[in-house]
């Protein structure tokens, strides 16, 4: 099935819309991370960091889709560990996702510490300017992990048997491009909103900690890790995103109640007027 004929069927359009929606939902954590990292840059560099970060996300996802056979081959066992209390089959996928989860946990906890520390530490950090290249490297590293997670979701949703290899790849690549364009359009307003409200910054960092824990659990599940005869399971994404959206809804209600009070300014928060 070629590129044009695949979209003659209703099923292809349903798959495209569903996958695009999922890509956007799964990309929310990416936008939050990019917003928090870019907030440390000068106002003129923040849009550039956001666009480069999301552009890298699109490049990584499309590259991984073209190398989908290689991605799936990373599921082969590299090392098997058998101890009296621990069993596991280490794969390439599990290593990448595990390292990504650790990086996300480290970055989120560090950022929360920096946001809440005292004036003396604030002066020390202000002397260390975060460069655009440093921010892009951090964004690129995490984008790679999120890209693996995104592609594995896409492969599970779009059937190669139903649409053929060319048709399935066309649907997945088009959904990635559409979702990234939509996220680029909303990344600026989201970043401005996050930077303007300290409670949302802390809430966003807390979400990233949850996602880091989810990635660690997912990597352990991919490696079939068994600890004291108990296999590590995955944390359902639905539960996680429900908790995130519920917390946001509660915070929006609180913000309405506090509307007459100016929010407390955390360091590294940028005003919209400068942008």
Automatic annotation (TrEMBL):
This is TerC family protein. It is a multi-pass membrane protein. PANTHER family: MEMBRANE BOUND PREDICTED REDOX MODULATOR (PTHR30238), SLL1022 PROTEIN (PTHR30238:SF4). It comes from Elizabethkingia bruuniana. InterPro entries: Integral_membrane_TerC, MFS_trans_sf. Belongs to the TerC family. SUPFAM superfamilies: MFS general substrate transporter (SSF103473). Pfam families: TerC. Keywords: Membrane, Transmembrane, Transmembrane helix. It is found in: Membrane. One of its GO terms (cellular component) is membrane.
């Amino acid at each position: 099935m070629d590129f044009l004929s695949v979209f003659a069927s209703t099923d292809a359009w349903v798959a495209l819309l569903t996958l695009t929606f999922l890509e956007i939902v799964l990309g929310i954590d990416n936008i939050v991370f990019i917003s928090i990292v870019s907030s440390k840059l000068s106002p003129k560099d923040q849009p550039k960091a956001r666009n480069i970060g999301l552009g890298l996300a699109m490049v990584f996802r499309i590259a991984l889709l073209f190398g989908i056979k290689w991605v799936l081959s990373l599921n082969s066992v590299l090392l098997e560990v058998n101890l009296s209390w621990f069993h596991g089959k280490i794969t390439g996928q599990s290593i990448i996702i595990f390292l990504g989860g650790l990086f996300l946990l480290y970055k989120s906890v560090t950022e929360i510490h920096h946001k809440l520390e005292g004036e003396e530490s604030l002066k020390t950090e202000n002397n260390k300017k975060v460069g655009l290249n440093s921010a892009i490297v951090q964004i690129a590293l995490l984008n790679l992990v999120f890209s693996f997670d995104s592609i594995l979701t896409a492969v599970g949703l779009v059937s190669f048997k139903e649409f053929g290899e060319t048709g399935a790849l066309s649907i997945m690549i088009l959904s990635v491009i559409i979702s990234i364009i939509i996220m680029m359009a909303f990344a600026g307003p989201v970043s401005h909103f996050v930077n303007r409200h300290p409670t949302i910054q802390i809430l966003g960092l807390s979400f990233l900690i949850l996602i880091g824990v989810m990635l660690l659990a997912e990597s352990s599940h991919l490696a079939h890790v068994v600890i004291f005869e108990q296999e590590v399971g995955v944390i359902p994404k639905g539960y996680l995103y429900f908790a995130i959206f519920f917390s946001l809804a509660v915070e929006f209600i609180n913000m309405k109640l506090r509307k007459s009070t100016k929010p407390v300014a955390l360091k590294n928060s940028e005003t919209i007027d400068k942008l």
